[in-house]
Amino acid sequence: xxxxxxxxxxxxxxxxxxxxxxxxxxxxxxxxxxxxxxxxxxxxxxxxxxxxxxxxxxxx
Length: 60
What we know:
82% helix, mainly alpha, 3 helices, 60 residues, elongated
């Protein structure tokens, strides 16, 4: 496999991981908005550790 092909595959994997993380965050924010937890919804957009903590708490 050529170096360019490897690099392309690595970039594509990184993009897919980013999209998946984005989907998790959107699902979490929707849940928090439904529960009227507006401050938490805002905070998860600013605090990656807090977002991960709530994703685990809500099994997202």
